[in-house]
Design goal:
Pfam families: ABC_tran. Belongs to the ABC transporter superfamily. This is Amino acid/amide ABC transporter ATP-binding protein 2, HAAT family. Keywords: Amino-acid transport, ATP-binding, Nucleotide-binding, Transport. InterPro entries: AAA+_ATPase, ABC_transporter-like_ATP-bd, ABC_transporter-like_CS, BCAA_Transport_ATP-bd_LivF, P-loop_NTPase. It is a single chain. The chain has 2 domains: 146 residues, P-loop containing nucleotide triphosphate hydrolases (Rossmann fold, 3-Layer(aba) Sandwich), CATH 3.40.50.300; 75 residues, no CATH class. A hairpin with a 2-residue loop joins strand 4 and strand 5. With 242 residues, it is of the alpha/beta class. The protein has a 6-stranded mixed beta sheet, with helices on both faces. The chain is globular, with a radius of gyration of 17 Å. It starts with a strand and ends with a helix. The chain contains 10 helices and 10 strands. Bound molecules: adenosine-5'-triphosphate. The site of adenosine-5'-triphosphate has 15 residues, from strand 2 and helix 1.
Length: 242
């Protein structure tokens, strides 16, 4: 398993119990999707894995987050990136006043090897030729889809073996969502495991091999992406089938 989350409990400010004992695993080389309605705890799960929780006023109360056998739950975000986990947060959070190139460079800061950074930049430019073309343009001037590509590219600059994606399709046109889905498949084919949070269940279940449904801080359903696409509750709640 690339990632194993076991009995994870997370709260914010000691009061809001956002995750209430969730367990899930992402097999090495897989794409796992997490579905769930607003407030179910999807972003919280990714923050608990990447170490971004503390800066949001949250903390792990119980349970473990492991990458292989290493416990990530006490490490800071920079150490977690060095272990091979990169997080593309909700809302992209690119640096709008920096150029595309500077955004990518920022993503490579935690990657100690110059050769590895150069290889990562080449991979990013191949995956997203538009980022090579727009190298000197400010990130804030890119379209929504291009900004999402930049956010993913920036995360890949760290050379991760596990990529955490928080709602990459949010606010994008159907055609662009299709492109993002294809690029996630290609990134995975190149050897990076992916944990994908999505409101767009159609896209998520198309690209993923495993899937989980979060419901008020617990895992209410899990199985292969095929199984979940055939599940009546998933169809009704997330795939818009009546
Ligand atoms: P959404 O898609 O709306 O972001 P989500 O499934 O990602 O939903 P989370 O953002 O993880 O859900 O939120 C889970 C719960 O934790 C919600 O009740 C939310 O209000 C609460 N929460 C999230 N972030 C914080 C925070 N920084 N401080 C306090 N409570 C928070």
């Amino acid at each position: 398993m690339a990632l194993t989350v076991d009995d994870l409990h997370v709260s914010y400010g000691g009061a809001v119990r956002a995750l209430r004992g969730i367990s899930l695993a992402v097999p090495d080389g897989a794409i796992a999707a997490v579905l769930g309605s607003n407030g179910a705890g999807k972003s919280t799960l990714l923050r608990a894995v990447s170490g971004a929780l503390r800066s949001r006023g949250g903390r792990i109360d119980r349970g473990t987050v492991r990458l292989d056998d290493a416990d990530l739950s006490r490490l800071d975000p920079a150490a977690i990136v060095r272990r091979g986990v990169a997080h593309v947060p909700e809302g992209r959070k690119i640096f709008g006043r920096l150029t595309v190139e500077e955004n990518l460079r920022a993503g490579g800061l935690g990657n100690p090897s110059r050769a590895a950074r150069a290889a990562a930049r080449e991979r990013v430019h191949e995956l997203f030729p538009i980022l090579a073309q727009r190298r000197t343009q400010r990130g804030g001037l890119l379209s929504g889809g291009e900004q999402q590509m930049l956010a993913i590219g920036r995360a890949l600059m760290a050379g991760p073996r596990l990529l955490l994606l928080d709602e990459p399709s949010l606010g994008l046109a159907p055609k662009v969502i299709g492109q993002i889905g294809e690029v996630i498949t290609e990134i995975n084919r190149q050897g990076t495991s992916v944990l994908l949070i999505e409101q767009n269940a159609t896209m998520a279940l198309r690209v993923a091999s495993e899937a989980f449904v979060l419901d008020v801080g617990t895992v209410s359903l899990s199985g292969s992406a095929d199984e979940l696409s055939r599940n009546d509750d998933v169809k009704r709640l997330y795939l818009g089938v009546r």
